UniProtKB/TrEMBL annotation:
Functional description taken from the UniProt entry: Catalyzes the release of L-lysine from [LysW]-gamma-L-lysine.
Assembly: Homodimer.
UniProt catalytic activity: [amino-group carrier protein]-C-terminal-gamma-(L-lysyl)-L-glutamate + 2-oxoglutarate = [amino-group carrier protein]-C-terminal-N-(1-carboxy-5-oxopentan-1-yl)-L-glutamine + L-glutamate; [amino-group carrier protein]-C-terminal-gamma-(L-lysyl)-L-glutamate + H2O = [amino-group carrier protein]-C-terminal-L-glutamate + L-lysine
CDD domains tied to this protein: OAT_like (cd00610)
Isomerase as UniProt keyword: no
Pathway the protein takes part in: Amino-acid biosynthesis; L-lysine biosynthesis via AAA pathway; L-lysine from L-alpha-aminoadipate (Thermus route): step 5/5; Amino-acid biosynthesis; L-lysine biosynthesis via AAA pathway; L-lysine from L-alpha-aminoadipate (Thermus route): step 4/5
Principal place of residence: cytoplasm
Keywords: Amino-acid biosynthesis, Aminotransferase, Cobalt, Cytoplasm, Hydrolase, Lysine biosynthesis, Metal-binding, Pyridoxal phosphate, Transferase, Zinc
Name by which UniProt lists this protein: Multifunctional fusion protein
Recorded family membership: Belongs to the peptidase M20A family. LysK subfamily. Belongs to the class-III pyridoxal-phosphate-dependent aminotransferase family. LysJ subfamily.
Entry binding sites for substrate: R136, S277
EC code(s) of this entry: 3.5.1.130, 2.6.1.118
Residues that span the membrane, as ranges: none
């Protein structure tokens, strides 16, 4: 799905943007989701727009209510919502700023500031700073320093000069009797996250007043709580003559403001017709801005930015990496200056689920929503640490009591290394080290998968692939062995099966190089709908056989998994009295779910018989409702488990028809078709023989969940099963553990299976 959106945009977009290969379709707080259902920690906030976070019901409600009343209203007439916003801005902006020109963006705010400055002073000169960024329209671009922005559009607006930042003597030389204004950012965000010195800013303000120039402070990115106070200039004790605001002013709706001080208004030159904007101050944006300011004040987000920013900078400064030159910033506007180009590290973060920004060629910029939780922020910093140092932050392998069995020790130590989805790097590197010590050839591939092989090169041979995964769900379980049980998060899903794969492959390698290569893959992201690790190898190999690492017990083999479809729905209505005839959004959503369930019951009666595996199984995973007095909104998630050979496209079409009738918006994600093989395939026969030879009684299972078998099975063919020690009922639980004797039995079984399947005999299906 996401690929289609990317191709569509690439076909019709202007081509002026460098885009990351991610199609973002949904957001909530500081989390974003792409079209494939993968989540990301947002450290971009839409280039500083989403200070109050994504998916705010307050903004949605304000927009919906205002859109039904009045969307557009030019400033040739008065408007109630605009009037309230102007009053609110006068109350919250620094002293002396009591008049406002409303526009649509930061660039427009800077353009307006320059016009007002020239108008009020009768002068033309504008002094800006090196590394400053103020926008891309012709006037704002003239004040922007970076050459690659400017040079293609020369000649620009004349009488604009640039001086060194934080250099008061340079300002003294540059400000003349022709200078209309000096424009500065208190934190140069795009220019490398450089922070202005207090003495410099105060001296610059005094110098401007002394020489008749105006001081324009550009707080387009630093405003509205970003730096730890509502406006950064509060931290400097200065009153700007003109203040430029935009980005987060309206919670994501395009809006800017030029705040005008006494020296501008008292000039008497700001008269009717001096400036204007068709969309500036429209009621829709004004309503969103009022709601945004309410959230900022109610949730004390400026203070939150100060606290979290200090925490983040302290953690970032503790990272031991030769790549890092300096960490700087204010509040939740943070720059990490590197000794190398930043772009590869931004791409690596994106791959691991963190979206961050550059600030020049070698500065990594963090600009998260101010509502980000400390847990999310720490997770993002852990990932940054991993990317910049090659080892995950705070990954400590605690002292454990040796079991005097290297194979058990391997799993036990794996359990001490946290490996949440998109944070598997530390575990992957540990496994490379261990696999090499065990006689295997091992490395971490470009996706982040751990790969180990009995052969240095495949030389075109069809390998036997053992595909496990490394990621686990959150939740710490102390690692320990008690009464023959090994406890720890991931013991069952999925480190137990993966450790058994590595040990069995190493045993085979130690007895002599097998005819066919045996390749063990510890894939990333099995828990995510994307299964990025499995998709990264599906076209790399053409295996003769494949074993998927999933818990089934050491005596059971899984030969089928159901498919999956996730359906996110949303219905919103104007509020109505509960005694009225109209259905509420909750009733509409509930009726839709009942229709889904009834449809599944009817389908199962006709097609499934008594088989759960053959049944269509929907579940209502989530339903939430919100109500603000004007609008009610209900969102829900339905998860389908799909039987083999099910027509998924027809199901989507049916759901869309029902949704259209009920005015419900649906988003589909996580789609996987069911996959099923059979017990007559060579691999299944090899498992039956091996389990019996080691004293067990083999059984076969079809599971109602999904696994990486759904991803690789359609490409790699039928000679594929899933196998691994552990009771799947224990995975993801607070009591997750594996029996040590079952784990070692599984290694014995796998060793026999690999000896059989890695022989060079033709495998006929």
């Amino acid at each position: 799905m996401g690929t289609n959106f990317i191709e569509l945009e690439n076909t019709y977009t202007s081509g002026v943007y460098g885009k990351r290969p991610v199609a973002i379709v949904r957001g909530q707080g500081a989390t974003l989701w792409d079209a494939e259902g993968r989540s990301y920690i947002d450290c971009m906030a839409g280039h500083g727009v989403a200070n109050i976070g994504h998916g705010r019901s307050e903004i949605a409600a304000a927009l919906a209510a205002q859109a039904q009343r009045l969307i557009t209203c030019p400033e040739v007439v008065y408007n109630d919502v605009r009037a309230r916003l102007l009053e609110r801005l006068a109350q919250i902006t620094p002293a002396g700023l009591e008049h406002f020109f409303l526009c649509n963006s930061g660039t427009e705010a800077v353009e307006g500031a320059f016009k007002f400055a020239r108008l009020a002073t009768g002068r033309t000169g504008i002094v800006a700073t090196l590394r400053g960024f103020h926008g891309r329209s012709m006037g704002a671009l003239s004040a922007t320093w970076e050459k690659h922005y400017r040079e293609p559009f020369a000649p620009l607006v004349p009488d604009v000069s640039h001086i060194r930042y934080n250099d008061l003597s340079a300002a003294e030389a540059a400000i003349t009797d022709n200078t209309a204004a000096v424009i500065i950012e208190l934190v140069q965000a795009e220019g490398g996250v450089h922070v202005a010195q207090e003495a410099y800013v105060q001296g610059l303000a005094a110098l401007c007043r002394e020489r008749g120039a105006l001081l324009i402070i550009d707080e387009i990115q630093t405003g509205f709580g970003r730096t730890g106070t509502l406006f950064a200039c509060e931290q400097y004790g200065v009153e700007p003559d003109i203040l430029c605001l935009a980005k987060s002013l309206a919670g994501g709706v395009p809006m800017g403001a030029v705040c005008l001080g006494g020296r501008v208004m008292e000039s008497g030159r700001v008269t009717r017709g001096a400036h204007g904007s068709t969309f500036g101050g429209n009621p829709l944006a004004c309503a969103a801005a009022l709601a945004t300011l309410d959230v900022l004040e109610r949730e004390e987000l400026a203070a939150r930015a100060a606290e979290l920013g200090e925490h983040a900078r302290e953690r970032l400064r503790s990272i031991q990496s030769p790549l890092i030159r300096e960490v700087r910033g204010r509040g939740l506007l943070i720059g990490i200056e590197l000794s190398k180009r930043v772009q590869p590290y931004l791409e690596a973060l994106c791959e691991r689920g963190v979206l961050a920004l550059p600030a020049g060629p070698n500065v990594l910029r963090l600009l998260p929503p101010l509502v980000i939780s400390q847990e999310q922020l720490d997770q993002a910093i852990d990932t940054i640490t991993e990317v910049l140092t090659g080892s995950a932050h705070a990954v400590r392998t605690p002292e454990i009591v040796s079991s005097e069995n290297r194979e058990v020790d391997l799993l036990q130590r794996m359990l001490t290394i946290s490996s949440l989805s998109r944070q598997e790097g530390a575990l992957a590197r540990y496994l490379v080290e261990q696999a090499q010590q065990m006689g295997l050839h091992a490395y971490v591939d470009e996706v982040g998968n751990f790969v180990a092989s009995t052969h240095a090169e495949l030389d075109g041979q069809q390998p036997v692939v053992l595909l496990g995964h490394m990621d686990t769900v959150p939740g710490n379980i102390p690692v320990r062995i008690e009464n023959g049980l090994l406890f720890g998060r991931g013991a069952v899903d999925a480190k137990g099966p993966l450790a058994a794969f590595i040990c069995a492959a190493a045993r085979v390698a130690s007895s002599g190089t097998p005819d066919r290569p045996i390749v063990v893959v510890g894939a990333v992201e099995e828990e995510a709908a994307t299964s990025r690790g499995a998709r990264g190898v599906v076209n790399r190999y053409q295996p003769s056989a494949c074993i998927i690492g999933e818990p089934s017990s050491s005596q059971a083999v899984t030969i089928g998994y159901k498919g999956r479809l996730l359906v996110d729905g949303c219905v919103s209505h104007q509020s109505s009295h509960s005694a009225g005839p109209l259905q509420s959004s909750n009733e509409v959503a509930t009726a839709f779910w009942e229709r889904v369930r009834s449809h599944a019951d009817e389908w199962n009666q006709e097609h499934a018989g008594a088989s759960i595996f053959a049944a269509l199984l929907p579940s209502l995973r989530r339903i939430n409702s919100e109500h603000d007095g004007l609008e009610e909104r209900t969102s829900f998630t339905i998860g389908y488990r799909l039987p083999p050979n099910f027509d998924i496209a027809a199901l989507r079409e049916q759901l869309q028809r029902w949704a259209y009738t009920d005015d419900i918006h649906l988003i589909f994600s996580g789609e996987e078709a069911a996959f099923q093989t059979n017990r007559a395939i060579p691999l299944a026969r090899a498992f039956m023989a091996a389990i019996r030879a080691t004293g067990g009684q083999p059984t076969f299972k079809n599971k109602t969940g999904t696994s990486d078998m759904n991803v690789v099975g359609p490409v790699w063919g039928q000679n594929i099963v899933a196998y691994g020690p552990g009771d799947s009922r224990l995975d993801h639980t607070p009591n997750e553990h594996i029996r040590v004797d079952e784990y070692t039995h599984a290694i014995d079984v796998l060793e026999r299976v690999l000896h059989e399947t890695a022989s060079q005999r033709e495998i006929a299906l």
